[in-house]
Design brief:
This protein has about 500 residues and is an all-beta fold. It has strands spanning about 30-40, 45-55, 65-70, 75-80, 90-95, 115-120, 130-140, 145, 155-160, 160-170, 175-185, 190-195, 200-205, 220-230, 235-245, 255-265, 270, 280, 290, 300-305, 325, 330-335, 340-345, 370, 375, 385-395, 400-405, 415-420, 425-430, 445-450, 455-465, 465-470, 475-480, 490-495, 500-510.
Length: about 500
């Protein structure tokens, strides 16, 4: 959880902007939200706790908001779960199911949900000016919470020790709880162990105290997560993934998410790559603080991020709500060119190709050549998001571009393009609509992309105020916020510099 606040002061409250509220991304009803916290699956429900200001739509009064879902697309907002008080703000953390009742907060038959969160202590608290780790527990499936009377359970007397992610380790080193937390300004992830969630012993640290200033990844480290995944689906070949969010120093500027692949032996994480060479979860501007759900069936690893950027977060032109979450994304590890990397796919109602196509008569049937004229795609519709899936052979074309949420005269909109000369996937939102609310918002994002046998594959999710792109099966991901005007509903596909072959193209509406 970052305590940083961008310099932009919010303007007087504008008229309600319900037309911009996402159809399939979570937003709080009428308040501010940021980092996802305490993600856990329990008794048929996904629980999304999150940083929330219950009293306004800018950062402050940090508490844990709460929402639940059965499908990760449609959410029900609940009352504030863990509220700030005169002693502490409630910063980021995680939730575990204490099946063995190691904490004593529940029973083996009715295990408690235990939240491990950062207490940002206030004046008069006895720990003023420090951040330390505390506990709260729930015995009614996460609906109400009780703070542990002996909080905090772990302190370093530090002002920037935060964001505990806790999981159960079972391995050669033993069976115990592991916590990954950060010393944010030292760019360190610190690992601890516990047998009861109350008493913690230091294990090791990962990071670098003196990264070269100005390089990506050199801001405050926040919101870590550590988990195992099989490589290429092989349960005998398991690697560990350490996600570390950074602000500033994201690859696209401002805040962003980096990750490292390596080994964890129950004590120490060792990255396959130098700490100065992270991989990036998302090449766009608006995916931060991504962490994963605990206790998901079948070993699935699903993350959600905050769809915003600290460069301009408090100035977003929405009211009364401000900020949203990314789509939930399922993670896999795959081998490419001798290295292991993450692949992300959005959690949608059905696998690609099994969803009904919106307005099927408007799209050409079968493979077709794209050259010299645009192919119109179904318009955006209020209350619905669109999923665009395409397989394209760029061939001689210098550029293949999706023009999204544009106006009828062809001007404006967000442009997603593949540039053959640079081998990059580019997301340009400079003419996407309302970009003047903050000088850092107009931007162009680019990610390196390698065609596979000459083929470009795209899954694009367009909601009312966002574009999420999953390219090459999810090996390359870009996420950007956009704020189009009410008349900006036109979508089209074009190629320049030569013909391109479109092998498959579908558009699906979701609500």
């Amino acid at each position: 959880m970052s305590s940083s606040v961008d310099a932009a002061l919010p303007a007087p409250a504008p008229a309600a902007t319900e037309a911009l509220r996402p159809a399939i991304h979570y937003t709080a009803r009428d308040t501010w939200l940021n980092d996802p916290n305490g993600l856990v699956f329990w008794r048929g429900l996904y629980h999304l706790f999150y940083q929330n200001n219950p009293h306004g739509n800018v950062w402050g009064n940090m508490s844990w908001g709460h929402a639940t879902s059965r499908d990760l697309l449609h959410w029900t907002e609940h009352p504030v779960a863990i509220a700030c008080d005169e002693a502490e703000d409630i910063f980021s953390g995680s939730v575990v199911v204490d099946y063995r009742n190691t904490s004593g907060f529940g029973t083996p038959e009715e295990p408690a949900l235990v939240a491990v969160y950062t207490s940002a202590f206030k004046a008069g608290s006895g720990h003023a000016g420090t951040q330390a780790q505390s506990l709260a527990y729930s015995t009614d499936s996460g609906m109400t919470w009780t703070k542990y009377a002996a909080n905090p359970v772990l302190t370093r007397n530090s002002a920037h020790f935060r964001d505990p992610k806790v999981f159960r380790y079972e391995g050669d080193a033993g069976s115990y709880w592991v916590m990954a937390a950060v010393e944010a300004q030292e760019q360190q992830v610190l690992f601890y162990k516990s047998h009861d969630l109350k008493a913690w012993d230091f294990l090791s640290a990962f990071g670098a105290r003196h990264l070269q200033p100005g390089r990506p990844g050199t801001g405050e480290w926040e919101c870590p997560d550590l988990f195992p995944l099989p490589v290429d689906g092989d349960p005998a070949a398991v690697k560990w993934v350490l996600i570390v969010n950074v602000n500033p120093g994201g690859v696209a500027g401002g805040s962003g998410g980096q990750y490292f692949v390596g080994e964890f032996d129950g004590v120490r994480f060792r990255s396959d790559a130098p700490v100065e060479e992270p991989s990036w979860l998302d090449w766009g501007r608006d995916c931060y603080a991504s962490v994963s759900f605990s206790n998901v069936p079948d070993g699935r690893r699903i993350i959600i991020g905050w769809m915003n950027n600290w460069d301009y977060a408090n100035a977003l032109p929405t009211h009364p709500w401000r900020s949203s979450m990314t789509l939930a994304r399922e993670l896999r590890l795959t081998t490419r060119d001798g290295s292991v990397r993450l692949v992300q796919q959005p959690v949608l109602p059905a696998p690609a190709g099994e969803r009904p196509t919106a307005a099927p008569g408007r799209l050409p049937g079968g493979p077709f050549e794209l050259h010299g004229s645009d192919v119109p795609l179904p318009d955006a519709v209020p209350g619905q998001a669109q999923v665009i899936e395409a397989e394209i052979l760029p061939g001689p074309a210098g550029q293949v571009a999706f023009h999204l949420l544009g106006t009828e005269d062809g001007n404006g909109g967000t442009v997603l393009s593949y540039d053959a000369a640079t081998g990059q996937l580019v997301l340009d939102r400079r003419a996407s609509g309302n970009t003047g609310f903050h000088p850092e918002f107009p931007s162009v994002e680019a990610a390196p992309l390698v065609l596979e046998d000459g083929l470009l594959t795209l899954l694009i999710v367009v909601d009312h105020c966002s574009v999420e792109v999953f390219a090459q099966g999810g090996e390359v991901v870009l996420t950007d916020l956009v704020f189009p005007g009410p008349e900006s509903v036109r979508n089209r596909l074009a190629a320049t510099g030569g013909p391109a072959t479109v092998r498959a193209l579908t558009v699906t509406s979701l609500s």
